[in-house]
Amino acid sequence: MAKAEYQAQAGIELAALKKKGTGDVDLMRPGNGTPWEDRGTLGGVVAYFQTALKSLVSPGLLMDHIRRPETTGDANAFAVVCAVMWVIGAALWRVWYYRQVTASNSHYDVDPTHFWMTTGLICLLAAAGVWLWLKVGTSLYAKLAATEMRNATPSLTYNIFAYSLGPSILAVVPVFGQGLALLWIFIDLVVGGKKRLYMKSTSAFINALIIIICAVLIGAVFYYVAGVLIWQKALSMSGVELKTETTVTGTTVH
Questions:
Q1: Whether pLDDT at 253 is above 90
Q2: Does position 233 have pLDDT exceeding 60, yes or no?
Q3: Which listed residue, 3, 12, 147, 169, has the most CB atoms within 10 A of its CB?
Q4: CB proximity list for 158: less than 8 A, separation 6 or greater
Q5: Vertex 218: Cα angle to 215 and 220 (nearest 5)
Q6: Range picked from 3-12, 104-113, 194-203 for highest mean pLDDT
Q7: Range(s) of the domain holding residue 209
Q8: Torsion sign over Cα 30, 33, 39, 44
Q9: Is residue 199 part of a domain?
Q10: Neighbouring C-beta atoms of residue 63, cutoff 10 Å
Q11: Closest Cα to residue 26, out of 141, 197, 254, 189?
Q12: Would you say residue 12 lies in a domain?
């Protein structure tokens, strides 16, 4: 009886320690490996889609299974593919938009040359956004979570940010896909902070929210200054403008 009682107390104590997230947890421990880390066996295409699927349905396990958290090579390669998804998504959205503004009942004048030049610029900015997410985002996140990541290296944070980009596959869906991808990336980042970095739930949520808000604000400011004020107004390069003629009582006024 005494032995059983002792085991129960020990189990309660261990559970309490795990719940508190003590410093005894080795954040840099190697996991079983993500599908992307096994792409040499699975093949790059299969490994990517399996990893992206895990990021959507079981991000906690995906983050926990990172085999080489001390390096960033695999994470970099995965992030490049995710950046391609954003570029494809931006291009498909522009194709959809082009069809809208060139429709027979459209109220816009379109300059195809300027329109597709703008499309190319948007695609480049989509790729640059992924790069900033990894470089600036990881640095800011490390500072926000410094008190709870005492034995984590910057490479681990980098890996988590890279694999949190898995939902980028949703960005290829026109119109609403990019917004949905961003929301899912936020969820993955929260889960990564809680399950892989052993942060408190509130800390994981708040830190991820701050990162997402900063990313959206930086993107919005850059879009307005560079896209609207400079590219569209100063350089007149948008390629899409409202028609300058209206019909009033059957008379065309220019």
A1: no
A2: yes
A3: 169
A4: 72, 75, 134, 138
A5: 105
A6: 194-203
A7: 27-253
A8: negative
A9: yes
A10: 27
A11: 197
A12: no
Backbone angles phi, psi at 72, to 5 degrees: -120, 5
Confidence check: pLDDT of 181 > 80 = yes
* Total domains, the chain: 1
Q: Percent of the chain at pLDDT above 90?
A: 44
Q: Judge whether 10 lies within some domain.
A: no
Half-sphere exposure of 124 (CA within 13 A, CB side): 7
For residues 76, 78, 79 and 82, what is the CA-based torsion angle, rounded to 10 degrees? 160
Alpha-carbon distance of 70 to 236, in angstroms, equals 47
Instruction: Pull the structure tokens for residue 81.
Output: 């593919």
CA pair distance 194, 86, nearest whole angstrom: 26
Distances (CA, A) of 253 to 100, 104, 246, 247, 248: 24, 20, 6, 6, 7
pTM of the entire predicted model = 0.80
Phi, psi of 108 (to 5 degrees): -120, 150
Q: What is the DSSP secondary-structure string of the chain?
A: -HHHHHHHHHHHHHHHHHHHT-TTS-TT---S--TGGGHHHH-HHHHHHHHHHHHHH-HHHHHHT-S-TT--HHHHHHHHHHHHHHHHHHHHHHHHHHHHHTSTT--EEE-HHHHHHHHHHHHHHHHHHHHHIIIIIHHHHHHHTGGG-TT--HHHHHHHHHHTTGGGGGGGSTTTHHHHHHHHHHHHHHHHHHHTS---HHHHHHHHHHHHHHHHHHHHHHIIIIIIIIIIIIS--SSEEE-S-EEETTEEE-
Decide if 171 is inside a domain: yes
β-bridge partners, 71: none
